[in-house]
Structure formats: structure tokens, C-alpha cells
Amino acid sequence: MVQKPHSQKALTRTYPYSPYYVQSAIMSETKELTFQEIAEHNTKKDLYLIVHDKVYDCSSFVDEHPGGEEVLLDVGGQDSTEAFEDVGHSDEAREILDAMLVGTVKRMPGDPEPKAAHAAPSSSSSSSSTAGFGVGLYAVVLIGGAIAYGAYNYLQAQQAQQQ
């Protein structure tokens, strides 16, 4: 039986390619940046973005961004959490972003509060109201079709009797 290490430190030491090792290696290379430092990085060739209090150097990705460079330049050097989450980026986009991590935000007195992503409405309330509307609409269309079919047959029968 193989004995599993229990701590993150043991995992890093035992399995150098484990996610814990990679995460600790990445985090050891990151630094804390103030809003003032981040705000200086707002050009196409030197572009930092803040997403969920993490700082990313997106300079190499500006030309490749599917939404165009203007989208990134508009939020360059500032907290772009809300804009990032509003778009609904894929898991692949999040992985690309993770590869550009350079540090975390060092909060100072007077800095703006972190922008929280919009909370998704609870699935039960949104699905039930949508489902009710869909079923109701379906019922109205079905009943309307049945009435139209019945009226057509009735009128055809009336017309046949008159001839």
C-alpha cells in the first residue's frame, strides 16, 4: 500500500509536478502591486489588468484577444473583474489568463473597493419562471391550433351542406 503525504509541503517535495507544486512555484514568482503601480501599465505594449484582486500582464495577448484590443485597452491598468465576468469567458480563456499572472493587488488606504462579479440569479427562481412562461406559451399555441383546426373543419362541413 502506498502511503499518501498529507500536507501541501509534503506533496510539493514528493511530487514535483503535482498541482500543488505548480501553484506554489507560480505564487512564489508573483509580487504585490499597488493600484498606483498597476495604473502605470495601461498601454498596448505594457498592459496590466486586475481580475479578482490578481494582476495579469496581458501585453502579449492584446493582438490576439477575440474581442479586439480596444476592449482590453479600455480596462487597462484598473480593476476589470466586472467586465471580465460580464462577458462570460470560457474555461480556456481563464486558463490563458492564469498563464499571465504577475501578482496580487496590495490594498492601500483610499484604494477603490474590489469589484465583485454579479451574482448569478438563483437557478430555481429563474428556471421556474422561464419554464412557466414556456409551458404557458406552448399551451396557448396548442389550444389556438386546435380551435383553428376545429373552426376550419366546421366551416368546411357547413360549406358542404350548402352545396
UniProtKB/TrEMBL annotation:
Query: InterPro entries this protein is in?
Result: Cyt_B5-like_heme/steroid-bd (IPR001199), Cyt_B5-like_heme/steroid_sf (IPR036400), Cyt_B5_heme-BS (IPR018506), Cytochrome_b5 (IPR050668)
Ranges for domain Cytochrome b5 heme-binding come to: 30-106
- Indicate the transmembrane segments per the record: 131-155
Say where the protein is mainly found. Answer: endoplasmic reticulum
Q: Which PROSITE patterns match?
A: CYTOCHROME_B5_1 (PS00191), CYTOCHROME_B5_2 (PS50255)
> Record's SUPFAM superfamilies?
Cytochrome b5-like heme/steroid binding domain
Which keywords describe this protein according to UniProt? Electron transport, Endoplasmic reticulum, Heme, Iron, Membrane, Metal-binding, Microsome, Transmembrane, Transmembrane helix, Transport
What's its membrane topology? Answer: Single-pass membrane protein
GO CC entries? endoplasmic reticulum membrane
Indicate where this protein resides in the cell: Endoplasmic reticulum membrane; Microsome membrane
Q: Give an example GO biological process.
A: sterol biosynthetic process
Signal peptide segment: none
Q: Where is this region: Disordered?
A: 107-129
Which Pfam family would be a valid example here?
A: Cyt-b5
Any single GO molecular-function term of the entry would be:
metal ion binding
State if Heme is listed as a keyword.
yes
Write out the similarity annotation: Belongs to the cytochrome b5 family.
The protein's name: Cytochrome b5 heme-binding domain-containing protein
Which organism is the protein's source? Penicillium olsonii
